[in-house]
Amino acid sequence: MKLSGGLYLTAPVFAEFLTGLERASPRPPPEDVEEVLRAANVVPFDEAAARIYAREVARLIEEGKRPPIADAQIAACALAGGFEVVTGDKRDFTRFAGLVVRIVGPKGGHAGHA
Known about the structure:
elongated; alpha/beta; two-stranded parallel sheet
C-alpha cells in the first residue's frame, strides 16, 4: 500500500465508523460525510492480514487469551500494512506479537511494543 499521508483506518474500524454514521441522530450533512470518506485511506483485511489474524488468534487461544474478533482484525491489518495502532486502551492490543501501540487520550500518550 502506498502511503500518502492523512488518515488511515483499518477495514473493521471503517465499518464501525460507517455504522455510527448510519445510526447517528441527527445525521450529519451528506457533504460532510463524503468529505471525511474521501480523506480516509482504508487498510484492507486482505490475504496477508488474514494469515496474520489466523496465526495470532490461534496462538492466543492456545494461551487461553481469545481476543475479540474486531481487535484481532484491526491488529492483523496494522501488522500486515506495517502500521501502528493508535488507541485509548493499550490492553486491547498489547497481546498481539510485534504490534506497535500508541496510547492517546487520558490513559497515556506513549508508544509501546507488544
